[in-house]
Every structure is written in structure tokens, then in C-alpha cells.
């Protein structure tokens, strides 16, 4: 006699924070862009996704910054920087919460952009995911 047992497992997504996704739409002229600042309530990663761009071959790098009470941006990425092109998304490591800050933003720097027209990127990010 043979007994076959089947087990169904459902994928579970564990989220540390809220369900609010913030749009990240920016136009680079070869410069740096910072997203709006948002509250950071956990020691989780900051999630970002690039969904659109208008110049073939352009891309950007992003890293996480904290903001102190005076609004000064502080690099809390500990050297981690993430490459973004269309359809790229990353859980970006950071130490905002661990270094006792409660506000965060993402610094984005574009590459291979048109010097005159720049390059447009669109996507989403979440400070607590």
C-alpha cells in the first residue's frame, strides 16, 4: 500500500510597514535627484522600482539617505548603491532606523542621459518594506 500526501504552500509576503507606495518621477539633466522625504518606522529595507524611462541606454544609481532634525541629508547606505533600469526593483539596505533617524529619502543619480534634454524616469518606492 502506498500513501501519497500532498501539501499546498501559499507564498507569503512579509511587510514591515504600511501599504503606501510613493511615486518616484524625476527628470535628470545628468544631475542628482532626491525623492521626497518620508517617515521611516522600522529597520527594514527601502524598496524602489523603476517602471519607465524615455531615453534608451539611460539608467540611474540609487542609495538611501536619512534626514536629521535640521533636514540635512546623511548617507546611511554604508556603501550600498543600486543600479536601476526599466523593470528593476531592489530592497535597498540602509541604517536609517539603526542610526536613530526617522526620516528617509532616496538619492538618485542618472547616467547616459542627454545633456540637453535630460532623461525621464518613473517608478515607485516605499520606506518600510
How would you portray this structure in words?
It is a single chain. The chain is globular. The strands form 2 sheets. Strands 2, 3, 5, 6, 7 and 9 form a 6-stranded antiparallel beta sheet that branches. Strands 1-10-4-8 form a 4-stranded antiparallel beta sheet, with no helix packed on it. The protein has no helices and 10 strands. The chain is 0% helix and 43% strand. Residues 1-17 have low confidence and may be disordered. By secondary structure, the protein is an all-beta fold.
What string, H for helix and E for strand, traces the elements in order? Answer: EEEEEEEEEE
How many beta-strand segments?
10
The dominant shape is globular
Assembly level: single chain
Largest sheet: 6 strands, antiparallel
Distance between the termini: 48 Å
* Class from secondary-structure proportions: mainly beta
Count up the helices.
0
Proportion of beta-strand residues: 35-45%
Topology diagram in text:
Elements: E1 22-28, E2 32-34, E3 38-39, E4 46-53, E5 59-67, E6 73-75, E7 82-84, E8 89-92, E9 103-111, E10 119-126
Antiparallel strand pairs: 1-10, 2-9, 3-9, 4-8, 4-10, 5-6, 5-7, 5-9
Amino acid at each position: 500500500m502506498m500513501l501519497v500526501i500532498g501539501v499546498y504552500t501559499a507564498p507569503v509576503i512579509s511587510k514591515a510597514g504600511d501599504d503606501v507606495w510613493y511615486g518616484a518621477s524625476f527628470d535628470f539633466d545628468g544631475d542628482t535627484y532626491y525623492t521626497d522625504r518620508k517617515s521611516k518606522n522600522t529597520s527594514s529595507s527601502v524598496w524602489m522600482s523603476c517602471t519607465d524611462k524615455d531615453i534608451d541606454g539611460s539608467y540611474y544609481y540609487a542609495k538611501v539617505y536619512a534626514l536629521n532634525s535640521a533636514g540635512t541629508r546623511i548617507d546611511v547606505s554604508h556603501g550600498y548603491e543600486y543600479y536601476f533600469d526599466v523593470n528593476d526593483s531592489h530592497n535597498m539596505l540602509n541604517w536609517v532606523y539603526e542610526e536613530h533617524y526617522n526620516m528617509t529619502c532616496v538619492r538618485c543619480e542618472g547616467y547616459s542621459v542627454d545633456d540637453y534634454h535630460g532623461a525621464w524616469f518613473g517608478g515607485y518606492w516605499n520606506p518600510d518594506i
